[in-house]
Amino acid sequence: MRIISETQAGGTPLLTPRETDGSIERLKARLVAQGFTQIPGLDYSHTFSPVVKASTVRTILAVAVLRNWPLHQLDVNNAFLNGSLTETQPPGYSDPHFPDHVCQLKKALYGLKQAPRAWFYCLSAFLAQLGFRCCQTDTSLFVFTRRKYTLYLLVYVDDIIFTGNNSELIHNIISHLEKEFSIKDLGKLNYFLGLEVLYTTDGLVLSQSKYAHDILSRANLQDSKPVATLAARDQLNITGDPFRDNTLYRSLVGALQYLTITRPDISYAVNQVSQYLHAPMIDHFQAVKRILPYVKGTLSFGLYFRRHPDPSLVGYSDADWARCLETRRSTYGYSIFLGNNLISWSAMKQPTVSRSSCESEYRAMANEIGALPPNQPTLFCDNRSAIFLSQNPIAHKRAKHIDINYHFTRELVSSRKLDTCFIPTTLQLADIFTKVLPCPLFQHFRSNHHVGPPPICLKWKPHGGSIKRHNQVNFDIP
């Protein structure tokens, strides 16, 4: 074992907790085990990290906004030290008086591969005693329902979001957690995993302004000229000169992928450059550099959640047929709204080749349904043939080549668990996830996905430091 200081040689902070403005919150040091020496089947069995899905976080935030629930944030001090172990200690320690004896740790340490799993089992067992149940679709979401009370607890390793419809019960459960674990109550949700929460009069704005600024700094593009839209072309070249720094390319693309948690407007462009992580070309890196100036121009943009009288669930599904020149696979995208708040979206390439635009749209509809709940939502599609195929009980002979797995869409429609409707292409919001759009149309769809500047605009100093804020006058999100 060894002591890992918070600051290594060169003065670079590794795990330093920071505020939203980038300043250091506190310094700390940890006792860390040499977990990299552990052997599967000997020192540890299973590994698991309690990481909540981004779509789950957005869904719970949307529910809290729609129902005007309070949002609390908790932080567990030294979370991994709470888990109990059954495995033996990793090699490296021996008692000279008892050379044949093996030391067994009873509590987990940071650095051990099984420490996250042990901590999660410890926390989930205690929450079960309090009456919580683990959600089946996301094991990091815990739900408490008793009579008229409903509480949601989200876990991301040692960070917790807590909300519900009864403040007294929330504080009561927090006090139980504090007695069992060393927990810091951070009060109102403000900064969670790089996500900044800015409250408005009718909801909140979820943004990653600081994280976007850090990406620009990593690419040395802080002074780049902002642009109003993304890539000017749909397809990237599959041949050309290799890019010399694969690590930099993968680092920037990976960072942009995390930025899409609150920025659906860059999802399609990020999906395009993500397809060449194995062997990027110079043209691919130029495409990444084309995304970053757009991020520079929309640095303060975030995802807006607001209260809405209609809490219905609506989805938009779209596919662009055989767009990939290399594989001829179609690109599909979807966006799902809960109470007019965007909670889930995707821009991906279909796993198989579609033989018609109808098939590609139909597959896109089927892929989206996996994200929909069991009640009757509405799914909009701009392909009449795909709508007909989902509603017609008789399969046409030309549709028999479609895999039977996708026909469960029709079964859901016939059982009235899903309603499919045609929508004109000009109103198809999911178009932003399948193709490059003209600047006016791109900005229109971006606004309809509720992506825009918050009432408080973040202004960054060139060399870091604190944030300057000023009133934003052009905030207009429908």
TrEMBL record:
Q: Which domain of life is it from?
A: Eukaryota
Q: Show where the Reverse transcriptase Ty1/copia-type domain sits.
A: 24-229
Q: InterPro entries attached here? A: DNA/RNA_pol_sf, RVT_2
For this entry, the protein name equals Reverse transcriptase Ty1/copia-type domain-containing protein
Which taxonomic lineage is given here?
A: Eukaryota, Viridiplantae, Streptophyta, Embryophyta, Tracheophyta
